[in-house]
Enolase superfamily enzyme related to L-alanine-DL-glutamate epimerase (Salipiger profundus), 375 residues
Amino acid sequence: MAPVARLQAWACRSPIAEPVATSFGIMRNRPAVFLRVEDVEGAFGWGEVFANWPAAGAEHRVNLMADDIAPAVLGREARDPTAVFRTLEAALHIRALQCGEFGPFGQVLAGLDQALWDLAARRAGRPVAQALEPDAPTHVPAYASGIHVDAADRLIPEARATGFAVFKVKVGFSDRDAAKVREIASGLETGERLALDANQAWSPEAAATFLDSVGDLPLLWMEEPIRADLPVANWRRLPRHVPLAGGENIAGEPAFARALSEGVLAVYQPDVAKWGGFTGCMAVGRAALRAGQMYCPHFLGGGIGLAASGHLLAAVGGPGLLEVDVNPNPLRDSFGAIADRVADGLWQVGTAPGIGPAELPEAVRAAVTHHREAA
């Protein structure tokens, strides 16, 4: 028996010179929440909790861990992360329902699941990818993400020089976006691919107009052109010139199963730090592959969650790509530069035990705004 004896979480914020803009809001700093779990024998594991939104979300997630979730975790056997995740998801459902905060509860549980798998893999002396799937590869295809349509002329060449050959551009800002996308596509080199992400920017009518206007381009996918929670009939009315992608704003295996049965999405993108951790996202990824669809984990955060996403994709397998945000983020880069992990379009998952990082770098500790511990 190795019960959980200690939980810690750190909210961090790093200033950035250039804000990160999406169609629904602007990030003026880069936040992250890192979670550490330790059992009675001193074994430990790390995870990351989604903290990009709302603006004050990082500190809230730390308090949620310490005050609401830790009491349900401390003393619980830590050797079976899947069992812990499923038990806690059910046990905390009513509390999340009572306060209407399914997202925050799910996000903290996602970080906890990562940490428990990290702990288990460290005990076994294996990378998480191989703990989840013994034949998992050590490299996975990756793409450069977070590229604002107005900054593509600068960021795509930089990402290309880093080693990427697939690029995802954010749209949904103006009625000139389609023309800009055409210019970007015309500048790609042989073998390079382009995907788009609207971050739920448009009405179904506006999305259809945009998709019609770029439908002749060989786009890899169009991500969240409309609100993720709109009835499926709205999604079915969208033109299918471009494959549709989504999943970062879907939570729970029943919801993903419903999306798969509806057959609208061609690319499924659950986020390891937003819902499910390894346990939930692994199940969704494998279900997507069984259905003949693509699984590409979503991620836009710090260094632990990015590393976890790489392990997850390696374990699930298939033709998917790892999302790597190429905007400056010290809370990611302090764990290792992107250029040191990407070559020829492939991300090095890593062969160290667990997810990889064993402690928070000093630069990350210097960015801590809030810390809580429960034991």
